[in-house]
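From the pipeline queue, job 12 of 40. The input is one protein chain; the requested action is below.

Action: predict structure.
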Amino acid sequence: MHLEQRRYKMYNSPKLSVVGAGPGDPELITIKALNTLKESKVVLFDALINRELLEYAPQAEHIFVGKRKDKHRYSQDEINELIVKYALERGHVVRLKGGDPFIFGRGSEEINYAKSKGLETAVVSGITSSIAVPANVGIPLTQRGTSESFWVITGTTTQKKLSEDVRLAAQSTATVVILMGMAKLAEIVDIFSYYGKENTPVGIIQNGTTTNEKSGFGTIKSIEKVVAEKQLTAPAIIVIGEVVRESGKLKAVLENSIEESVIINSPIGG
């Protein structure tokens, strides 16, 4: 470690805390996360966090480093460098990330980089959107007699391809939760259809747990039409499995629809 870094570590205690902000609702954040924000000097925050949470760190500088599809304000390498820069200059840096920082959030990469530069590090887990968002619309990911397990899969790998795990999951009886998968929805439908799952219930929830939440329900066979009709886009979570029928919103669709649709004519309606 350089002499300059040793001095900062001695006097300013450079530290990185990677903090999960939860799925979107500002009340779905832990007390520990809020206390960590109150102690911060700089907050580097992502696109999907609720900006209201920044009010808990009025003493800190707030810097947006969010990444959205094909629109990156900073590369991951640049974010890593910012973490170290501000930690050495200001002390305690909070990296505020949507959901849980260790669920497709690259939190571990940032922790490892900070450690390699001599920073103290901490992780504050967050409520992951993969569980909270389905729950918010009444979907239990597991249910006795229906689903004994669930998969959480990224829809897009670092190679910009659909994860091969989707094909494996489609052959199971588990509930399947796909994050960052809207751009690959047609591929997902093809895979599940190939394995005879055309009538399996599907729920898609956009901006889950926020005031802008939108959702659509159907089956593998009908979900692309539902998405088009409701104009659902990213960021959204795709939930596939028999437990989706437990959502009150899906039941309302089945009970109130006056159109002869694929959803009503499928076994899900009976």
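Job complete. The radius of gyration is 21 Å.
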